Amino acid sequence: MAWVPAESSVEELMPRLLPVEPCDLTEGFDPSIPPRTPQEYLRRVQIEAAQCPDVVVAQIDPKKLKRKQSVNVSLSGCQPAPKGYSPTLQWQQQQASQFSTVRQSVNRHRSHWKSQQLDSNVTMIGFPPLLSIVSRMNQATVTSVLEYLSNWFGERDFTPELGRWLYALLACLEKPLLPEAHSLIRQLARRCSEVRLLVNNKDDERIPALNLLICLVSRYFDQRDLADEPS
């Protein structure tokens, strides 16, 4: 039986791109022998396509997929602050307002420093986040350094040097947030709340810094589900 072109729903969805001569779809061929001409190759494609079912249903075992699941996405909020550790609402609002002023200052200086080339060595934690440094960072650099420090913080304790860098990077983060930055700052706030739980003394100098980072993420960057309940 010869193959004859026909107007079908399949051809309407997948229009033919190459002119193909009619061929016998029942014709057998040896797949071990390579086609010798383009026409012979196209005929083999036609024969193979004719032997494929119109609909194929995959048999999936849900139990196997569950066992092989390797990605866990945490949608939880911050850990609640221990009693006496949570800042007041007034304090949180004041910090968000001051942070907005800092960001305006950074933006004013950005045009002055953006023509300067940034030395990759200055992004180490031991080097202070000078305005001359952070002002010339583009958003890709800000996000990369923030990701590096967030991952570093995930395995270590909080230090004042780390806090200064995180504050400076948040000050350079442009709104609206990119998806990567959105995820990073939420990860940062959750990590701050976890470390805060491990601090035994509410007068520890780390507590105000950790509260500040959580406040900025939740109050300034509008991640309200991560906000501390006012004390």
Q: Could you explain how this protein is built, in words?
A:
The protein is mostly helical and 231 residues long. Helix content is 50%, strand content 0%. The protein contains 9 helices and no strands. α6 runs antiparallel to α7 and α8 runs antiparallel to α9.
Short key terms for the protein model shown above:
50% helix, elongated, single chain, disordered N terminus
Structural class: mainly alpha
Q: Treating each run of at least 4 consecutive H or I residues as one helix, how many helices?
A: 9
Count the beta strands.
Answer: 0
Helix content: 40-55%
**Which descriptor suits the 3D outline?**
elongated
Distance between the termini: 84 Å
% residues in beta strands: under 5%
Helix-strand sequence:
HHHHHHHHH
Low-confidence stretches: 1-10, 120-125
Average per-residue pLDDT, rounded, comes to 79
Task: Give a short account of the largest sheet.
Answer: none
Taking all Cα atoms into account, the compactness measure Rg is: 30 Å
How would you summarize what this structure contains?
By secondary structure, the chain is mainly α.
